[in-house]
Amino acid sequence: MKFLIADHYYSKFLSQFVTRHPELSSLSYEKHLRQLLNEQFGTADFYSHALRALGHEVDDVIVNYDSLQEKWAKENKLRNQTILERFINLVWQNCPYLSSRKASPCQLAILSSQIQDFRPDVLYIQIPTYLPTSYLHEIKKYTKLIVGQIASPLPPFHNFSGFDLMITSLPHFVDKFNQMGLKAEYLPLCFDPRVLSNNPPKRIYPITFVGSFFYMHSNWLSTLSKVAQVAKLKIWGSPDPKLSAYQGEAWGSDMYSILQKSQITLNRHSVVAGEFANNMRLFEATGCGAMLLTDHKSNLSDFFVDGKEIVSYSSETDLVKKIKYYLAHPAKRNIIARAGQVRTLKDHTYQVRMKQLINIIERYL
Questions:
Q1: In angstroms, rounded to a whole number, what is the distance separating the alpha carbons of residues 152 and 127?
Q2: pLDDT tens digits along 167-187
Q3: How far, CA to CA in Å, does 352 sit from each of 47, 81, 147, 186, 204?
Q4: Domain locations in the chain?
């Protein structure tokens, strides 16, 4: 089976990546893409690597990384942009509201050429709201199945009719999509063991929080402030929460390094998760061997044994109490952390999830 995986990266991360790697301009498209995927940002090549291991042919495309996409266009001898097209693209790039939400005409044109060139059986779109519905209808003739993956808030009034199937790690989203008349399937998130260091670093951080503050419950910052009063808390994320424990942003391999240096990592689900356990940190933290301390959710037992593989908290008071306890009892903490890592590496890897994804896809082809 042939998959084309279309993704979208944060513009701030891409800017930092370009700054750190001045050699990029001299690289071919393939080497440039490999350099980017090696940063382990987002889902990186986690899908494609696992799918290839299962015998499938896969290409990764970062739709909004213009310099990389334009390199592909040049190497594949696409016609040069007209002056008007260059002007429109320049305006698009310099309008954050537009560029962060919708693909530019230039981005769509290059993606269309990539789809026509590769002719995938499955076009797997990690950013379903970024591509216009009309565009999806236009490219249907070049692929057998258009799949959208989403685990973030659904924008009001967005038309998802261009997708043949929606994949979501939020159980309640399946019903929402069904009510819209769309086919949808549940697929939990997971972890790629390749991010682990060959020489595990010392766990120098007693307690950490790594994550976004968007869509969080309003009292989470207050909770972190109280945690910082009783423990040596370190915080990485965006935007800046204006707390003294804040260390800056951490993405990709930098984030995994922090988790591998953490004794305890805190997790708090965003509002969109509702009563369900669903975010990457569940599997990233446990996969990296930190003890996960997460807010309790109704389906948490589907993934981990509470108190043996992870620890959940039910309130701010309960959280602070458990932080104090497990910092004071390192042997118990380490047993739970190790059990959580073993569980994730056994049941929650991309190798496992991609087998589940293939079983789903085959029912719709």
A1: 10
A2: 999 999 999 999 999 999 999
A3: 11, 43, 19, 14, 31
A4: 2-190+350-364, 193-347
